[in-house]
Amino acid sequence: MTRARMKASERMEEVLTAAVSAFAESGYAATKTDEIARRAGVSQPYVIRLFQSKQQLFLATLHRVCDRIEEVFRTAAAEAATTDPDEILPAMGHAYKIFLADRDLLLVLLHGFSAASDPAIGPDVRDRYGHMYNMIRETTGAPVSEVRRFMATGMLMTVMAAMQVVGPDAIETTWATEMLDDLEAHGD
Hints:
The protein is mainly α and 188 residues long. The chain has 9 helices and no strands. Residues 9-69 form the HTH tetR-type domain.
């Protein structure tokens, strides 16, 4: 069976999709580029040719995840802005559930935070998190305290989703239910 010839950009997309899955499963340090290559159906040298290094592939994967979060936020903000500009921040919060439903993406985000002590990864992680913060501030016009609360709630939800105590297949726990009820009661 011969494989159809693909453009480098299409192969790159396949490799990035495989990388999201592999990095979500094993994290940055434990993931091998040959595992990503196997999942993408390409050779390990080809992965390196596309991304130069595992580090650059991880950063590209992390950027993909952050781009997805920003896309979810921008879409929700644009929709809310047409009806009630005061509802932009709450709309962005509700839309974040779309991101939380994709376990691989949220795990890559958490692995990115974990790998931030690496001098070659940390600046990018901090820059992207700051970029999200600034985008939320500029899009909503909300004060720092509201954006801080919004982002803190988002991180709580990310961690809870990673632990599988929220979401469609949530494992019920009393503490998670109490926290979620409290968040809902306070409009977070």
